[in-house]
């Protein structure tokens, strides 16, 4: 029996949006300078805490910065931590852009009646860029790892996302670059898994081995869905 597609879930980074790493790196060098620590020593700490920050287990941005600086032997005053957190967020706002095809695709999918959701492994600073990108107005649900304490490829985060849209996993398409083995996990739940390969993708978090379709642009996703959900 054919299951009707009712929803499309999207990954965020390297799928709907891309990051210019040099902007973040330059911002963090400035943070290190203001905090009085060696930027070459701070960079590995940022990297080593990536998964904890994605799961939200280190608290908010100010908490994260305070903890990392204390690991480096610094004891920053609260006002400096607040300033550093603001600068980190500003760097993310400068460094993240939607792919040109993202907004037209989302609007067309909504016009056709599909429910839309975001499923992202992201730290709080990466997640706080989402309003500036205009995505809350285009999505029915936002599931961020740092808020729900779950991260791809854990099946639980995909089930959380499908429940948030009121659909079954088998009624979902999941579109992503494939990092973290996310497409393998989505496909194992019965979702239609679509791998998108496009410029600016980092490849920092691995790839996926199994998926149903591969496209070279977001616009091509429209060729994989029908004219409407019929419900």
Give the secondary structure arrangement, pairings included.
Layout lengths: L6 E4 L6 E3 L1 H15 L3 H10 L1 H5 L6 H11 L6 H18 E3 L3 H10 L3 E6 L3 H4 L2 H4 L7 E4 H4 L6 H11 L6 E5 L5 H7 L3 E5 L16 E3 L16
Parallel strand pairs: 1-4, 1-6, 4-5, 6-7, 7-8
Antiparallel strand pairs: 2-3
Report what the structure shows.
By secondary structure, this protein is an alpha/beta fold. Helix content is 43%, strand content 14%. It is built from eleven helices and eight strands. It has a six-stranded parallel β-sheet, sandwiched between helices. Helix 11 (182-188) links the parallel strand 6 (172-176) and strand 7 (192-196).
Report the CATH C-level class of the largest domain: Alpha Beta
- What number of structural domains do the residues give? 2
Rg from alpha-carbon coordinates: 19 Å
Distance N to C terminus: 17 Å
Q: Trace the largest sheet across and list its strands.
A: 5-4-1-6-7-8
Helix/strand class: alpha/beta
Q: Kindly state the percentage of residues in helix.
A: 40-55%
Task: Examine the secondary-structure arrangement and name the CATH architecture of the largest domain.
Answer: 3-Layer(aba) Sandwich
Shape field: elongated
């Amino acid at each position: 029996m054919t299951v009707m597609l009712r929803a499309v879930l999207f990954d965020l980074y390297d799928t709907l949006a891309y990051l210019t790493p040099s902007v973040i790196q330059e911002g963090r060098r400035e943070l290190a300078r203001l905090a009085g620590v060696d930027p070459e020593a701070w960079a590995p700490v940022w990297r080593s805490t990536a998964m904890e920050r994605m799961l939200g287990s280190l608290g908010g941005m100010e908490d994260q910065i305070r903890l990392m600086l204390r690991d480096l032997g610094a004891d920053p005053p609260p006002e400096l931590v607040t300033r550093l957190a603001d600068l980190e967020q500003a760097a993310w706002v400068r460094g993240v852009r939607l792919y040109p095809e993202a907004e037209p695709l989302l609007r067309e999918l909504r016009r056709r009646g599909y429910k839309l959701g975001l499923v992202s492994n992201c730290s709080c600073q990466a997640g706080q860029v989402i309003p500036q990108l205009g995505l809350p107005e285009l999505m029915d649900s936002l599931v961020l790892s740092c808020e729900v304490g779950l991260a791809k490829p854990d099946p639980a985060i995909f089930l959380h996302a499908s429940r948030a849209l009121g659909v079954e996993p088998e009624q979902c398409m999941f579109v992503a670059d494939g990092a973290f083995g996310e497409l393998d996990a989505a496909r194992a739940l019965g979702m239609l898994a679509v791998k998108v390969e496009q410029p600016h993708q980092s490849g920092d978090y691995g790839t996926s081995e199994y998926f149903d379709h591969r496209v070279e642009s977001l616009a091509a996703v429209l060729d994989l869905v029908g004219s409407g959900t019929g419900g």
